[in-house]
Target: LacI family transcriptional regulator
Amino acid sequence: MIVTIKDVAKKANVAPSTVSRVIANSPRISEKTKKKVREVMEELGYHPNFQARSLAAKSTQAIGVIMPNSAYYAFQNPFFPEVLRGISTSAHDNKYGIYLSTGSTEDEIYNEVTSMVLGRRVDGVILLYSRINDKTMNFLQSSNFPFVVVGRPDEHDERISYVDNDNIFITKQVTNYLIDLGHQNIAFVGGSTDFVVTVDRLNGYKLALKDAGISFKKEYMVFEDFIKENGRKAIESLMNLNDPPTALVTQDDLIAYEMISHLEDMGIRVPQDISIVSFNNLMLSEHSKPPLTSIDICIYQLGFEATKCLLEKISIPDTLPKRITIPTKFIERKSCEQKK
Amino acid sequence: MIVTIKDVAKKANVAPSTVSRVIANSPRISEKTKKKVREVMEELGYHPNFQARSLAAKSTQAIGVIMPNSAYYAFQNPFFPEVLRGISTSAHDNKYGIYLSTGSTEDEIYNEVTSMVLGRRVDGVILLYSRINDKTMNFLQSSNFPFVVVGRPDEHDERISYVDNDNIFITKQVTNYLIDLGHQNIAFVGGSTDFVVTVDRLNGYKLALKDAGISFKKEYMVFEDFIKENGRKAIESLMNLNDPPTALVTQDDLIAYEMISHLEDMGIRVPQDISIVSFNNLMLSEHSKPPLTSIDICIYQLGFEATKCLLEKISIPDTLPKRITIPTKFIERKSCEQKK
Model:
């Protein structure tokens, strides 16, 4: 059964026009009434069709950009300014402004996105992450509000448009590269398993090991936040194993720098004693000691294409959902060596 | 004579309520009427008092953040993500979102800001730059819309709130540091003289030279955009002088890195042949070769304090304007040496 505005109005004991105004977040409706109507909307499972609304309403000429955590942490990682550079360039080409989230927890982010959508602050949203079972993504999807994800959505839902790298494939490739150099003890030092990107890369790593007949060791997985502050803990636990790794697949250049620095403190040399490959190919990677072998995931392009895709969805609401895979580049430098 | 809504209405041949709706950018008014009324507003010099309006109107819970040029260029410079980190943290603490400009020219930025203000998209604006005779700043000032500048405004106007470093003082200090190391031929490699920060630093540099009895040489000034692509041109023109400099004061670590790299190509060693001091103390500066002596201008703090100041202005409109000076730190590393 499709729930309509009339059903909500009847149950909430208000006029249908009041429900419409609550959806539009009109200042003419009291907060008390808004609360009541929204509760009924939730209870009945009513979701306004924002895409249809957006056609009728005046465009806001703005898109929302949602980061996985607060800017305090996010902007310590050069990924976010770089993806924002791609987003802003495409937004600007189309005379769109950018509304940036500042939430620091999942709940805060959810509240910000619902308020962007219900308050008609933006015409569409870009999620800069894909989390397992993310309620913000679920809200956007069930509201039929235009959005695009940077990253592969957790659940296989063909209606969701996203832009991503082929993380399984490339992680399999870099793991193979280390195996070809003679390494068998290869550790996986990743981000949080809340994020699909970590899960995908872990699967690529496991596939490479399996194909090479190397058994997968649980103790070779170290999950830490992307933030480099946690690097020391990660590397110490690994190097203190009875059978320590001779190669690392790290998920982020920032973590890699930190590890190289801690390894140096421990008297372990990169690449002579341990090889490291990483992801993101940050500007620093060329200048670090040793220069870092890294996967360039084309961050700017991820942001640019996600925005292009979103703006297409906004202007032509019946555009089919798209999955865009951005190719990566393997940048071989000096952080890996043949196993002795 | 104070121009009122009634004057505008009479001249435009519409009702005063129509003028109010145009100011609020109501969708109920046709674009044609809006255009006509806005032309009359401009002609008569009418500026709605947005500060008073904001008290009456519902808060947007958003602030506008305006960059000096497109994100395409701005986000190549770590200054912007870092200042945005400070802004977002303070905005988030106060449950505010951020509306980011994407304009790439002065005119585009002006249009974005007027549309943010007239369209009531934001409660206040942070300008991330201070340009000489900037029409965007003039618009904000004459509209009496809450705004704060990161950087010292060009004209001495006590009503403008801003957050800045004491650029004259610190540049005098670093120039003195080079003079104390025995350098007399000191070049100034700065950003665009469109920006007040460049002018202030140039003045600090000149003051130090004057106090030391060193005559100022025009050919020792190289003005280039902050973007590092222009570094080669800057350094070549300097080093080809008959009396080339033995020390450089550069305005930005990114320019400094680039120069060090070009100097290396030219067979000139830092610090043995030429000393370099710079500004911003980017994360890379510790790890560059040689580690860079740089002024930490506390970018995060500049953004954080500007936002705090703006939110105070928004919530208490009759707050007195403030000038906040953020202290800097001189980080001495290995890019300067005693002149031989």
Summary: Chain B has three domains: 1-46, 47-164+302-325, 167-296.
